[in-house]
Amino acid sequence: MTVSRPAAVVILAAGAGTRMKSQLPKVLHPICGAPMLDHVLAAARELRPGQIIVVVGHRRRQVTEHLAGHAPDARVVVQHRQGGTGHAVRAVTETVGLGQGTVVVTYGDTPLLRGSTLAALAAEHATRRAAATVLTTRMADPTGYGRILRDDRGAFTGIVEEADASAGQRAVTEVNSGVYAFDAALLADIVKRLPTDNAKGEEYLTDAVAILCAEGHRVATLTMPDDEEVRGVNDRIQLAHARRILNARILDGWMRAGVTIVDPLTTFIDAGVMLERDVEIGPGTQLAGATVVETGAHVGPGCLLRDSAVGKGAVLSHVVGVSARIGPGVTVVPFTYLAPGTDLSAGSPGGRRSVAGRPAGKGAQA
Quick check: 217 and 128 in contact, CB under 8 A? Predict the structure, then answer.
């Protein structure tokens, strides 16, 4: 595989996610219109890997069914017991194998991690000809994270978990993200001999890095400036925080593409929405699902549209629409509900106005 195309991306998605307090698997909780896992898969696909492997465990039937319907390109490996991150990767090596080349390991609950960051990690790993490359970041408050240890010349020497760290080591602000690039063959060998002499009796990838380092293999690091990218989602508070960040990214992207968003603080746009240039989105507006808004349309204030299409130059204010179609140049009167199947066009009855809940063919009148 080339630098830009690793042999595999392994996504660890087997955790129980008990802090979510939900019947829904943690990785299937939605954020900006798609489950967390789908955002991670999208980032993985940017690397064009030889294969994408998702390790499932807790409520694996739900996760597997979702993958079958939404990510048929992903191979599923079952981790039958919660034995740690190293055990999860060992399940992969024993089930489908990792091939030859670079393997990137990431997590199903990190929806903010960009594909460009994973690509940079894989590139650094290849450039340095490393056995393993650790993605690190710096945090003002590193509480709970493993610290990166370096020698006097700045070379990587290891990772120490917070529980095992000295007072001086706890003061280190560079932390382990838990995201790695490995040489596939070396990783397949190392995961067979990971220790379990820890409080949980589990096998950890941090120990794989330590073993490689101890055996004289080169371990490199890549430090990224945005620590938010690797913050995992473990509860509803963190889910809301991640949603705010991802929504802000989506809005910034559309504004740079030529869309006017009057009040970004009150505007929410799903990842699957498509907007054309010179669209204006008013305050208090939410665009969800596969909604499409064409050039020159004004949507908002106070609109909620899901899986709807808005034509060129249409004007909507305080409108709720679900699976509706608003034709070019149509003005929808305020406080209108467009029921599923509504189709308003300039040449139809009520073509420049609409009434609440009048789907196409039902004699909508202005």
Answer: no
Q: Residue 78 in contact with residue 59, Cβ under 8 Å?
A: no
Cα-flanking dihedrals φ and ψ of residue 198, to 5°? Answer: -135, 175
Confidence of residue 348 (pLDDT cuts 50, 70, 90): low
Q: Global pTM?
A: 0.91
DSSP code of residue 62? H
In whole angstroms, give the CA distance from residue 324 to residue 310.
8
In the chain, the domains with their CATH numbers are: 8-230 (3.90.550.10), 257-344 (2.160.10.10)
pLDDT digits (tens, 9 = 90+) for 88-128: 999 999 999 898 999 999 999 999 999 999 999 999 999 99
Q: How far apart are CA 351 and CA 366, in angstroms?
A: 8
* C-alpha–C-alpha distance, residues 252 and 245, integer Å: 11
Q: Say whether pLDDT at 357 is over 70.
A: no
**CA 7 – CA 183 distance, rounded (Å):** 10
DSSP string, 223-275: EES-GGGG----SHHHHHHHHHHHHHHHHHHHHHTT-EES-GGG-EE-TT-EE
By the 8 A CB rule, do 63 and 37 touch?
Answer: yes
Is the pLDDT reported for residue 195 higher than 60?
A: yes
Q: Quote the tokens at residue 360.
A: 């196409």
Burial class of residue 63 (count of CB atoms within 10 Å of its CB; 0-12, 13-18, 19+): buried
For residue 347, what pLDDT band results from cuts at 50, 70 and 90?
A: low
Assigned token pair, 223: 């430090």
Residue 36 scores a pLDDT above 70: yes
CA atoms within 13 A on the CB side of 332: 36
Number of helices (H), then strands (E), in the chain: 8, 26
For tokens 């202005």, what's the residue? 366
**How far apart, in Å, are the Cα atoms of 223 and each of 29, 65, 175, 259?**
29, 36, 9, 33
Q: CA nearest 247: which of 33, 27, 25, 28?
A: 33
